[in-house]
Amino acid sequence: MSNFVKHWASTDKISNLDIQWHVPSDPEIDFALQLIDEFLKSSISQLRELVSSHDGNISSGGFFSKEETAEFCRGLTLMKSCLVGMSTLTADIDEEVALDSPTR
Fold first, then answer.
1. Is the pTM higher than 0.70?
2. What single DSSP character describes residue 22?
3. What crossing angle do the helices spanning 66-87 and 26-52 adopt, rounded to 10°?
């Protein structure tokens, strides 16, 4: 095992760095997509159910109880995490191509 910890806070020229990024295999990507599918769909379903159970029934204390508010926030956090994770599965956009695109 290399002693890579020594290099965590070192300062060096960018040209001297040898960064080796992990490139996921097809099975790893498929597994990530399965996780996203499972968690994102369940989170959306849970949030829809929570919101639809309150359609037109606003209580005097507010829209959701404390427990429901916590559940709603957990659902949104899970959705956010899935969406952030999904963004890493897309290729980076070449700036020059994006600037020359007719859709801009």
1. no
2. -
3. 150
Residue 43 CB neighbours (<10 A) = 19
* pLDDT level of residue 53 (50, 70, 90 thresholds): confident
Rounded to whole angstroms, the Cα distance separating 51 from 28 reads 34
Question: Could you give the 3-state DSSP secondary structure of residue 55?
Answer: coil
Element (H, E) at 43: helix 26-52
Instruction: Tell me the pLDDT tens digit for each residue of 65-104.
Output: 888 889 989 999 999 999 888 888 777 666 555 555 555 4
Strand blocks (E) in the chain: none
Per-domain residue ranges for the chain?
Answer: 26-100
User: How many whole angstroms separate alpha carbon 26 and alpha carbon 33?
Assistant: 10
Whether residue 86 contacts residue 32, with contact meaning beta carbons closer than 8 Å, is answered with: no
Residue 7 pLDDT exceeds 80: no
